[in-house]
Design goal:
Helix 11 crosses helix 13 and helix 12 packs across helix 13. The protein has about 450 residues and is α/β, with parallel strands linked by helices. Strand 10 and strand 11 form a beta hairpin. The chain has a 7-stranded mixed sheet with strand order 1-7-6-5-4-2-3, with helices on both faces. A 4-stranded antiparallel sheet has the order 8-9-11-10. The protein has 2 domains: about 70 residues; about 260 residues, Type I PLP-dependent aspartate aminotransferase-like (Major domain) (Aspartate Aminotransferase, domain 2), CATH 3.40.640. About 40% of the residues lie in helices and about 10% in strands. The chain is built from 13 helices and 11 strands. The protein is globular. Bound molecules: pyridoxal-5'-phosphate.
């Protein structure tokens, strides 16, 4: 085992060393060799060292360099050194963190880390939470808590009776709601199409003045960090209206919640402590390995009620039992990487990571605007939208940038306009990476548009 792990550490280090200089997309040759990993399932066992050598030889070159410094697609963080190393150690621990008795260390780390995050985000004292696979499951968990709380108040046991014959709930979302929240609603039987959509402004923020009448059977879903623009809904205004009506407020803060950890940008999240439930990712802006998300509930009891299970062989300890707060029962120890990332960065390091990536996003926006291209959003966070002209031209630039390989940016349609999306989310990205990427993007755009490349 020791020699295998030593060799694996060496292979992983070599992979990471090569990330900054290789093409962000895998070569056609590397992809063409992927069948080497297939063939029929071997009938006999293989030497683990040979298995790892095979995986590295054909697998590593075929990866997308999304852990590297010039991947700006979707909202994708890399892996901080402490987080990656902790992930390896946790793999060796192989803890099942369903119950305290199965892993006292993980149960303790979860409580410690939830406390740190409560403090970092400025959430209300007593806020509880849980570690899940990502923001989609965090949205599902927060909304399950909401569903429980509102229906229990109406005298309905939704966990026991389901939604058959239940008093109806109204779900309010902004028109720019993320698809994963709609997916969570559909999984919960709340329906992705029976939502009430509230109009948004030019940045995608919900217009609070257009909220429908709220009542004690309404869940209002806000967004902290629009996936295209990075904009944040007016949290305090909506929470104040919801509180006086007895409605529940859930905030999807997949990446935007991390803005609350920076003194300079926390104002965007003003009122966050009044939200009833919140979802976020650690695998995005905190830069821990996939997969890692968190749900928070101001009152943890509805979350526990929505998620808990009981059986004679699952004796409770009277402590916080991790598996009573999550959709899963058996679960890996995701907290380990979150704890290590926070412990290594400290409060100042988290703030710096978020601020730095926001500054780099502005650098992108300034460089593209200086080259004569239209930046479509106010760059309030780490997201930049740029148009290179008409639909076809912008699409050709995006495809060209993706093929060229210096960096990777995706596409989108923002309020009717086709755009390239740039998301700066990795701890590893430097100013030099942005400048190198800008030069590549502008070069491709000049070729497509026929405009001169500015000096
Ligand atoms: C606002 C928002 N919510 C939810 C998600 C889904 O996150 P995950 O893929 O981690 O489940 C994303 C992903 O980009 C997002 O931006």
């Amino acid at each position: 085992m020791r020699e295998l792990l030593r060799q694996t550490a060496e292979r992983a280090s070599q992979y990471l060393d090569g990330l900054a200089d290789r093409s962000v997309i895998p070569s056609a040759e590397a992809l063409g060799q992927l069948p080497e990993l297939g063939g029929p399932l071997p009938s006999e066992p293989s030497d683990p060292e040979e298995v790892l050598a095979l995986l590295d030889r054909y697998g590593s070159p075929a990866t997308v360099a999304s852990a590297g410094p010039r991947y700006f697609g979707f909202v994708t963080g890399g892996s901080l050194p402490a987080a990656l190393a902790a992930n390896w150690l946790a793999g060796a621990w192989d803890q099942n963190c369903f119950a305290v008795v199965m892993s006292p260390v993980v149960a303790a780390l979860e409580e410690i880390t939830l406390g740190w995050l409560r403090d970092l985000f400025g959430l209300a004292a007593g806020t509880g939470g849980a570690f899940v696979t990502g923001a989609t499951m965090a949205n599902l968990s927060g909304l399950a808590a909401a569903r429980h709380a509102l229906l229990a108040r109406a005298g309905w046991d939704v966990e026991g009776q389901g939604l058959f014959g239940a008093p109806p709930l109204t779900v309010v979302v902004g028109d720019e709601v993320h698809v994963s929240l709609l997916k969570a609603l559909s999984l919960l039987g709340l329906g992705r199409e029976r939502v009430v959509r509230v109009p948004v402004d030019g940045q995608g923020r919900m217009r609070a003045s257009d909220l429908p009448r709220l009542d004690e059977r309404t869940i209002v879903c806000l967004q902290a960090g629009n996936v295209n623009t990075g904009a944040v809904d007016p949290i305090r205004e909506v929470c104040t209206a919801a509180r006086s009506a007895g409605a529940w407020v859930h905030v999807d803060g997949a990446f935007g919640l991390w803005l609350a950890a920076t003194p300079g940008r926390a104002g965007l999240l003003d009122g966050i402590d009044a939200a009833d439930s919140l979802a976020t990712d650690a695998h995005k802006w905190l830069n821990v390995p996939y997969d890692s998300g968190l749900v928070f509930c101001r009152d943890p009891e509805p979350l526990r009620a929505a998620m808990s299970t009981a059986a004679a062989y699952l004796a409770a300890t009277g402590q916080r039992e991790p598996g009573q707060y999550t959709p899963e029962c058996s679960r890996r120890a995701r907290v380990v990487e979150v704890w290590a990332a926070l412990r290594s960065l400290g409060r100042a390091g988290v703030a710096d990571l978020v601020e730095r990536t926001c500054r780099l996003a502005r650098r992108f926006a300034a460089g593209l605007a200086a080259a004569g291209y239209d930046v479509l959003n106010e760059v309030v966070a780490n997201q930049v939208l740029v148009s290179f002209g008409d639909v076809e031209t912008t699409r050709r630039v995006i495809a060209g940038v993706q093929r060229e390989g210096t960096c990777w940016c995706g596409g989108t349609v923002w309020q009717g306009q086709t755009a390239m999306r740039i998301s700066v989310s990795s701890w590893a990205t430097t100013e030099a990476d942005v400048d190198r990427s800008l030069a590549a993007i502008i070069r491709v755009a000049s070729e497509v548009t026929g405009r001169c490349t500015p000096a």
